[in-house]
């Protein structure tokens, strides 16, 4: 799992960046690792960038709640995150265990919608 992104090996793109999937499935640990990697990279760029990124997440959620377009935020802020994950992800599916609501919301806003498959067979 350490090679999903480019943080583990110097001068080597991660598997996601090389493969560029459009749909991805995973268990909650995969999503937690991706979230942690994104937040670490943002924090490395300094407190100003961290503040801008946090504000962009909140703004995208607000705009989405009211059905307003978020294309500008995606282009300016989130395209860099999406490129780190191959740049083509359209949907992610989570299963095996419930993914935390916070992680699901964060990645759905910053990358693409994460659909929860865990518990779908229960009556």
In short:
With 123 residues, the chain is mainly alpha-helical. 53% of the residues lie in helices and 9% in strands.
Structural features, described:
The chain is globular and about 45 Å long. It is mostly helical and 123 residues long. It is built from five helices and three strands, in the order H-E-H-H-H-E-H-E. The protein has a three-stranded parallel β-sheet. 53% of the residues lie in helices and 9% in strands. Helix 5 links the parallel strand 2 and strand 3.
Task: Write the SSE topology.
Layout: H1 15-19, E1 23-26, H2 28-44, H3 47-65, H4 71-84, E2 91-94, H5 101-110, E3 114-116
Keywords:
single chain; 123 residues; mainly alpha; three-stranded parallel sheet; 5 helices; 3 strands
Percent of residues in helices: 40-55%
**Distance from first to last alpha carbon:** 33 Å
Individual helix count: 5
Low-confidence stretches: none
**Mean pLDDT across residues:** 89
């Amino acid at each position: 799992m350490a090679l999903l992104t480019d943080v583990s090996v110097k001068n080597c793109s991660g598997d996601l960046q090389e493969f560029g999937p459009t749909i991805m499935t995973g268990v909650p640990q995969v999503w937690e690792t991706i979230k942690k990697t994104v937040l670490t990279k943002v924090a490395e760029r300094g407190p100003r960038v961290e503040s801008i990124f946090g504000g962009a997440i909140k703004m995208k959620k607000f705009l989405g709640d009211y059905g307003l377009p978020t294309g500008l935020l995606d282009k300016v802020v989130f395209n860099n995150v999406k490129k780190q994950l191959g740049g083509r992800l359209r949907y992610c599916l989570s299963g095996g265990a419930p993914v935390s609501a916070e992680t699901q919301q964060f990645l759905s806003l910053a990358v693409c919608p994460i659909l929860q498959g865990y518990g779908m067979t229960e009556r």
